[in-house]
Design a protein that fits this description.
Blueprint: H1 7-18, E1 26-31, E2 37-39, H2 46-49, E3 58-62, H3 75-90, H4 98-113, H5 137-149, H6 156-168, E4 178-181, E5 187-193, E6 196-201, E7 204-210, E8 214-220, E9 223-230, E10 234-241, H7 245-263, E11 273-274, E12 284-285, H8 292-300, H9 337-346, H10 362-365, H11 373-378, E13 385-386, H12 407-414, H13 424-432, H14 437-494, H15 500-506, H16 509-539
Antiparallel strand pairs: 1-2, 1-3, 4-5, 5-6, 6-7, 7-13, 8-9, 9-10, 11-12
């Protein structure tokens, strides 16, 4: 990658490799050394955005969830969105009740291992795969029952389409959660969805603000402000506190991009947004892509042969000998390498972490209420919707994207081709051959403590630098304004320009008084001083 290569170049290269035309829904995400997530900005140099040393680890992600994923033009696009939502389901971002969870998992099974076959799928086969952070035997039996009786004959494309249609009806569809705290200090998750701004707190959706009701977003330090204008000229300001200033800025930029993408009619309407009311202070940001309406219009014009999709089945456990294992990375044939590349870009997050805290528990979701589809979203934003009995706590929303530093992680990635869930038994086997979690994390903890001690002083220095830059910027603006006023004064008093604008100013009594009582004596005094200095120089 050239040092001056822009993010757009890398993204176009990736989409060309994937044979993807409906690419505006996707983006590239990376994590900086401070464990803060970022979206790669396409108008800036890739290398300059990275604060780490190469090689850089980035992840291909859905950035803007389609309003109606089933209406996407091409199957390759639907497949990539399917992989993302399947990942959201595993990490607890897509919260749902037990019946919905079982149906979604059954769709995944049907799409990736096909019809139920008693000869290939022994009793309890669904328990060999993990679709959620945690689930019970009752849920596993329900998944197998739906897969056996209701989905027979569905092709992978049909199952994926049904999966997308079902996922779209859930309250947490499209949620990319940002952990924050409200003014009372209570934990909350903020998110931007295709339909508006959402706040999830405990087991409820406490706020849902449609995009046309959001008038402004800004941040100051760790504080994020959302200005809302609702019916009957009711105006409110929602205030939340992010863990760090960098996290708050990331939240603000995500909000600006999502509002521009879903709300505006044309990309020409996009404007540069400032995070502060003062033009010389704060951050400035501008969304650089197309908006949703333009993307849909462009998709309707696509006319080509559907590209080939290399799907990979789920990796079963060794207790199912009739189902073949997924290939390791080193032995993947050329015809399957593209699927492996999709697997790597679908996510480098390891699924071996068994310590996920998750809201998906069949024991607590039996009576959970989820409003059906868009009807719930279209209702008043004042309604508090109960999304589950369990608190919303996505397992991976705040965790950094780990870097695959050795071949073991790459082999694990290859065994979950295209983001397929790992087998539970193979998880345990792979963990048995690696050091314990405590042993593996100990050096990292020591390193984190050292970095934390050194970064505390660095944070203060950064705050001082920001303050100095703000003061210098203010002084520069003030000097500039004074210089412009001086030039205007000289033009008014000394030039022979006789335009209507200047003539009207010169004829005002205030200007004539200023000219004769102040400016002329000041000019004579200044000219006298200049002549004295010149004569002194000549004498010496």
């Amino acid at each position: 990658l050239q040092r001056d290569a822009k993010g757009q170049y890398l993204f176009d290269l990736l989409c060309h490799h994937l044979n993807l035309l409906e690419k505006d829904y996707f983006g590239i995400r990376f994590v900086d050394p401070d464990k803060q997530r970022h979206w790669l900005e396409f108008t800036k140099s890739v290398v300059k955005q990275m604060r780490a040393q190469p090689p850089f680890t980035m992840c291909f992600r859905v950035k803007f969830y389609p309003t109606d994923p089933a209406a996407l033009k091409e199957e390759i696009t639907r497949y990539l969105v399917f992989l993302q939502i399947k990942r959201d389901l595993y990490h607890g971002r897509l919260l749902c009740k037990t019946s919905d969870a079982a149906l979604l998992a059954a769709y995944i099974l049907q799409a990736e291992i096909g019809d139920y076959d008693p000869g290939k799928h022994p009793e309890g086969y669904s328990s060999k795969f993990q679709f959620f952070p945690k689930h019970s035997e009752k849920l596993e039996r329900k998944i197998a029952e739906i897969h056996k009786s209701e989905l027979s004959g569905q092709t992978p494309a049909t199952s994926e389409l049904n999966f997308l249609r079902k996922a779209q009806t859930l309250e947490t569809y499209g949620v990319d959660p940002h952990p924050c705290k409200d003014v009372s200090g209570n934990a909350a998750f903020l998110a931007f969805t295709p339909f508006g701004f959402v706040v999830l707190q405990g087991n409820k959706r406490v706020h849902f603000i449609k995009w046309n009701e959001v008038t402004k977003m800004k941040f100051e330090g760790k504080t994020f402000y959302l200005y809302v204008s609702q019916k009957e000229e009711k105006k409110i300001v929602l205030t939340y506190f992010a863990p760090t200033p960098e996290a708050c800025k990331h939240l603000w930029k995500c909000g600006i991009e999502n509002q521009a993408f879903y709300k505006l009619e044309k990309s020409s309407q996009v404007r540069t947004v400032s995070s502060s009311n003062l033009f010389f202070k704060g951050s400035r940001f501008r969304y650089s892509g197309r908006v949703a309406k333009e993307v849909m219009e462009s998709s309707a014009k696509i006319k080509r042969e559907p590209p080939e999709i290399h799907r990979a089945g789920l990796v079963p456990s060794r207790s199912c000998p009739s189902i073949t294992h997924g290939p390791r990375l080193s032995s993947v044939p050329r015809t399957r390498r593209r699927a492996v590349h999709i697997s790597i870009m679908e996510g480098l997050e390891s699924l071996r972490d068994s310590a996920h805290s998750t809201p998906v528990r069949s024991a607590s979701h039996g009576d959970a209420f989820v409003p059906p589809g868009r009807g719930g979203r279209a209702e008043s934003s004042e309604r508090v919707a109960v999304i589950a009995d369990e608190s919303y706590s996505p397992a991976d929303s705040v965790l950094p994207t780990p870097v695959a530093e050795h071949s073991l992680e790459l082999m694990l990635l290859s065994r979950q081709l295209n983001g397929a869930p790992c087998s539970i038994e193979e998880e345990k086997e792979s963990e048995a051959g690696t050091p314990s979690a405590a042993e593996a994390e100990e050096p990292g903890e020591l390193r984190a403590l050292c970095l934390g001690a050194s970064s505390h002083g660095g944070t203060r220095a950064e705050q001082v630098n920001k303050f100095v830059l703000s003061v210098l910027r203010l002084l520069l603006v003030t000097v500039g304004l004074l210089f412009v006023l001086l030039l205007l004064l000289i033009v008014l008093t000394e030039s022979d320009l006789d335009t209507a604008f200047f003539r009207d100013i010169r004829q005002t009594p205030e200007f004539e008084q200023f000219h004769y009582q102040y400016f002329c004596p000041l000019r004579r005094w200044f000219a006298c001083k200049v002549r004295a200095v010149v004569s002194l120089l000549i004498d010496t």
